[in-house]
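Possible race condition, two jobs.
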Amino acid sequence: MRNGRPLLAASAVAIAATAAAYAFGGPGAEAAAPEGRVAAPVKATENCVADARYPKRQLRGVWIATVKNIDWPSATGLSPAKQRAEYVRILDNAVKRNLNAVFVQIRPASDALYKSPYEPWSQYLTGTPGKDPGWDPLPFLTAEAHKRNLEFHAWFNPYRAAYDTNTARLPASHPARQHPDWLVKYGDLLYYNPGLPQVREHVVKVVTDVVKRYDIDGVHFDDYFYPYPGGGGAFNDTAAFRRYGDGAKLADWRRSNVNKLVAQVHKAVHGTKKDVKFGISPFGIWRNKAQDPSGSATAGMSAYDSIYADARAWIKAGTVDYVMPQLYWPRGFQAADYKALVPWWANEVKGTDVRLYIGQALYRVGATDVPAWTKAGELPAHLKLNRSYKQVDGDVYFSAKQIGANPLKVMDRLVKEHYARPALLPLPKGQKGEAPAKPSGLKAQGSVLKWNAVPGARSYAVYKVPTSGETCTATDSRNLVAVVSGPSFATKAPGRYLVTSLDPLTRESAPSEATVSPV
């Protein structure tokens, strides 16, 4: 039943169609068998229970780092054709593993891997800061991702100004040269001072420009806010603190500066395109219990105290759509046990409109300094543990290079144990809007399902109805055989199929049904 309305058993076909519609959460809809054919008898299941081993909606992502040519492009000075070919290989590797999202670093250090009116071209394209690479990569990057049903998140570093403290070597148009008063030198890097309103305004302007002009699905910040403690000594923001501190303690003021930027970016992103998401991947430890009784049972560096990143404040304020803590430690690691951190973060988002994804250290697999990482089963065990916490809606892997390298064959194991089926992306919490229309004209032409393209649909989900006639076909991903970008699907398996439309947020339509006959 749904909304108290009973299922009507006028015919086996009607039962199948109505129950299938209920499983999708859409209105009751008839989906008759193809003309001249009779649908197989079905078992009308009133209460469909999803199997946690086969989540229908789950984010499965990968970070594609451009800084220092970590992932893409693999070297500076490659031709546009080679850059494009490398990127396509990365995406194809992701699709092969049934991943569904990419987080591409387009602004490593106040530079741009796209044609920006505010910041110079990145040196990681040509080898020379500010040099035009001869093409704008971002339209290609987004289009190729969407062609493969990969959600595209544009990854920005908010405060890093330059990897070179000698501003004379930066392009004349670089904001660091135009606004030297914005800068704080720390170690071998230049940072923009988070305490200056002008800096926040600049970052918001840069982000808003990308959201406005490019077809991105999300804006993503990493874990670099105030610099990580190291050999840089004290972060010299004394003058700004005197001017803007307003009697606050230095640490509280710094956290407030970051919180203000996060809130401004969130407002700007949704004010520009309401369906674009904004999220952050903070350092994995908010605070330890030794520092705060409500912190995690850990003993590592605290993001709250060391880099002034207060993820709890962003969650409570609703100024992020998701958090993706970087839990780069194995189970049983004394200072930061994965088993202690997952429940802590799950509890933080409970009852909020903020999604929780986990940043996974694929790059650590095979490392010998921590015994757990020498075992191929450690990372798959993380995903198994995540199932115990319904707030965990997916995982993102650092980084793309390791997806291809497959250390200890761990990606093969992840696919076998966790990603054997595709998955739809989680719906943004609190997001209102209607699902797209269901596919019309669905029919089988030989072994190919074809239907009419649906306005507003970016992709389509294809489900195979079990031979038992089970009506809960779409409850989880056990019967999800593909997510395709165009209005057709070729199969070698005869039987009954359901096809639904998905909009860019993966809101799902009611299903249409057709049968592929045995050859």
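Job #2 (started ~2 s after job #1):
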Amino acid sequence: MRHMAEPLLDRARRAGRRLRVNGDARAHYVICGRDALAYWVVRALLATELQAGRVRITLVVPERPRSDEPDGRDLQGVEVVRADRLDEVTFRRAGLAGADGLALLHQDDVGNMHAALCAQEVEPRLRLVVRMFNTGLANGVRQIFPDSAVLSDASMAAPAFVAAALGEVAPTHFRHGGRTLYVARRDDVRPPDVVCGVADTRDAQQVRLLPADDRAADLVIAEATGTPPGTELAARRLRRARRRRRPLTVLLRAVRSFATRKIGVAVIVLLAVIGVLGSLNGYAAHEDWADSLYLTLVTTLTGQDPNPDKSAAEQVMQVVLNLAGLALIPLITAVVVDGIVNARLALHSGRIQPERSGHVVVVGLGNVGTRVMAQLCDFGVEVVAIDKVPEPRGGALARRLGVPLIVGDAALEETLQSASVGGCQALVVVSTDDETNLQAALIGRAVNPELQVVLRLFDGHFAERIQQAFGIGVSRSVSYLAAFSFSAALLDRAVIATIPVGRHALLVTEVSVAAGSSLDGRPLAAVGRAESVRLLAHARAGQRLDWAPDARLVIVAGDRLTVVARRAGLNALLREAAPPPEDPVTPAPRQPEE
């Protein structure tokens, strides 16, 4: 109990320090990042807290933007500090001393760890949220900051990409109140196992989240009863449907990649010339086709058989064939040398690959691509990976899993063809370059019009336009899917689960009702709102969850509400459950002296 109370005491001390220093009683959070995750985390904080006037946000960004994606420096109501190094000087400029929380959102595990150590010198006790790819470092971070959370946006977003590639719903599982729940299609679960409806996805152009009529939802939250979830079933079907590899096609592809196109054309043209001259020579010498072939080969390759008694036509053909032979020998040498070099390069880059079908092609082995590749392999799905660099972040894991890695630009058709994109089940494009991602998706769709494309785009508005213009039905922003979990961790609010539905995200969380709040004294029916918030369970203070509460039950202070909600709906519910703002203390009127 004492350990749990220490963070609350620390926050109370910091609040008192803020009042003494600058008279500002608002909670202060410092966010350090340089990409879209920082942008979406700041937006989530602004939507949650700024309207209530309870938060002040300082964003630390590099001097110059590192890419075209937003990083939050242009958002209104945010203090921006520009610095390329996260050290004690930068943290003091950002006002970290006395702050309530710090979010380190750079894509550098070691750099974030170093920044956490520097932050400890400025403010030993604060809420710390760290973005890390290697979550195994979490224990080390907690030793430094007991009140901390280590999150991986790649781990949060990868299941959504995997499910989209397999044509299923995201494999979201969570345990709450003694029950294991997961998201599934209504047709795949028994009616008694359904807890509540989540979304109506039958019209892909107009997905309805949390519809008013719960029975209209084809996507539901269900209680696990031991049957495999939809994604695992889809992986099993994919393995059964995979066709056998064709060895003849593999041989032809290897021969085709043996030499460059220019050398191949030169050899073909020269052989055609030799064939024509050999035929004319045989015709002039009145030889049959077998003797003509023999004379042509001997004359071309050795230059032998000089004979001054031959006719003029035979002598001319013999001289020309000797000249052609002089050109053929170097070309043969060039083909051999070029073929050996190309073969070694192709083997190193993975371009000599057997023809495949029914597999999944993953473009980009960064943080997200590595997680997607690993989860697909866990399901037993065959994967081919593509990356521009020979040693990407997930290269070592790909070798351990036996996943072929093709080194090349996915925006080129030949690179995608080497991965057998024409026969693959899905193309998952998750590199960090929007332009390359879009080109790879369009080329893949051109090669295979029925191809399932899972596209990662950082700009949400751009993604929506791409979906409408090119008919690419699935495009997801990793940062958007993970941002609310990071912001909730910074505010010390537990997000039980995040449910991705298309480009939307639903949140499962538990809300505590404060005394004197807007919800205090109202019936449970006031919690739910169509297409915004749905109540899953209710519990009195110190009691177990009731998964089928009476809507007429009156809410009292200390009640816990488990809800699934959209972001805007959850923000509104949190404000209604929060304590009322304290009135400013006014001095008592002075009594007249008697």
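The mean pLDDT is 77.
Logs attached separately.
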